[in-house]
TrEMBL record, chains A, B:
Every Cyclodeaminase/cyclohydrolase domain range: 8-187
Pfam family, one: FTCD_C
Native source organism of the sequence: Methylopila capsulata
Family matches, as SUPFAM superfamilies: Methenyltetrahydrofolate cyclohydrolase-like
Protein name as catalogued: Formiminotetrahydrofolate cyclodeaminase
InterPro entries: Cyclodeamin/CycHdrlase, Formintransfe-cycloase-like_sf, MthfCyhylase
One GO molecular-function entry: catalytic activity
Amino acid sequence: MTAKDQTLGVFLDELASEAPTPGGGGAAAIHGATGAALVSMVINLTVGKPKYAEVEAELKDVLVRSEALRAQLTDAIDDDVKAFDAVMGAYGLPRGTDEEKAARVETIQAALKVATDVPLEAVRLCRDVIDLAAITADKGNLNVISDAGVAVQSAYAGLLSAALNVRVNAKSIKDREFADARIQELETLLGEAETLTKKTYDVVKNKVS
Amino acid sequence: MTAKDQTLGVFLDELASEAPTPGGGGAAAIHGATGAALVSMVINLTVGKPKYAEVEAELKDVLVRSEALRAQLTDAIDDDVKAFDAVMGAYGLPRGTDEEKAARVETIQAALKVATDVPLEAVRLCRDVIDLAAITADKGNLNVISDAGVAVQSAYAGLLSAALNVRVNAKSIKDREFADARIQELETLLGEAETLTKKTYDVVKNKVS
């Protein structure tokens, strides 16, 4: 069963349990998907209203992108579980002979690279949701603009959460060139996201206060 | 049907739809519940391990509180829908006669007070989750400490999200003494939460980097 077919209550029960997945990576993906869904909601409550005719074409384009991001981030919940299981499976490989030991280390290292790239992709997707939330906060229906503020904070929490999983896996990778490139991209995305999230949240706060 | 009995996929579909609920208030509550669940997870993976025997009693107490907060925040998803529906219902009341007009205004104002107090309670609950995430980030199992970082960002996003709903409803309340008292409490909670969230996230970031 995929994560999206579980009930919310069961998902939260499993999150809280001593099973290591779903964990922070799944939560990160849900935060991002929630942000994308709220961008879509604000736009769905904006298009078709005469007052917002001027921004309708632009927002319809944003809606196509937010719905695609929502689908990708919902799938990312399951991708995180798979990547984690592969790392755990690799650590569990036999290490009786020198050959087995070498094969195990190689498999662990390959799995760690995947387990770094999967949350990095979630960071990129959340970064994209933040962009769309910023446009929506500027141009969306004023009556529901608070939801654009929730959207940006949701996506930013997803980004900060996935970032921790990038760091924790990159730390154990021996190929430092690979790991350093990921951390460098991460830092750039984090910096951009922080600035745009603060700006967007303030725009919304001023509109609703 | 309560929100927790819906599948995650259906919940996200409804969030994205043009139906105004579930909206940002429901997302705020889920963020908080996710944060509480991750506090519980880290503790469930800490207690019983000899290395963490010294903090076991304290963390077991935190677990009781995080599970109570998770239940309250999960219920808060439905409370938000009810509070919103009551405001919308009040705006829809007849206003043919002066008596009807007066009754309508009174009902709207009463509903707005509830719709301010419901997200303010969510802010308080998220604030409590942040406290527990801070303890967990300090004392929980190092192998899953990144999840304590996700927990604090989840709860903080929930708090910032619910805060917007407090503001938007408080703005329309004519009883300024009531509204100002809520905004004042909100500002205090926001200030405390920002400081503790940053501190906790940095603790985790340093442990995983």
